[in-house]
């Protein structure tokens, strides 16, 4: 919260790079707390809500959209996740159809390489890897001063290297983030490839439409997090 920024600066001996000018009128809240008290000393914590957002068809809370089209894997199976708001805008422009669906699959849900999509749609539906991590960190820093616990901040870097990682985490430290959560890279993402024909321009390998057999997990295995699965971009159902 606002008052903890001063404590953090005192502890570090240097300024925290986050604007402190914003103020809100808390008098009504103070009066109610003085009259009724509080059940909990801390009341706000923000998580990405990744699994719930997939079920509800929305972006994960404070996080940029991961991709406009991707396959999500967990112990329940594989799920195709498609940005329904993108589909609605493409329908308005009379661009949605099998050919567009095939192009989205071929380009892993990235719009920049699909020429007939208008620029305003491309700008509107930037994915997490298109949004600068500097913007994500700055947004989290400004948000955090109103949060009395913490927030789960995932960072996205398509092709990470030591220089970029050093700059990214130093920026998070300078702006006073309490913590960061996962670092997502493109190497961990996995899109279900289909046999598509983009006007005969790009030959694609034949891929069977038959789904691969899913491994049957025991009850003990279901309760355990798979490190190998996390490295492959999968998500444990316990990590909600």
UniProtKB/TrEMBL annotation:
Similarity section: Belongs to the ribonucleoside diphosphate reductase large chain family.
Organism: marine metagenome
GO CC, alphabetical: ribonucleoside-diphosphate reductase complex
UniProt-listed SUPFAM superfamilies: PFL-like glycyl radical enzymes
Domain Ribonucleotide reductase large subunit residue range list: 26-48
Name of this chain's protein: Ribonucleotide reductase large subunit domain-containing protein
GO biological process: deoxyribonucleotide biosynthetic process
PROSITE patterns: RIBORED_LARGE
One MF term in the entry's GO annotations: ATP binding
TM region positions: none
InterPro entries: NrdE_NrdA_C (IPR013346), RNR_lg_C (IPR000788), Rrm1 (IPR039718)
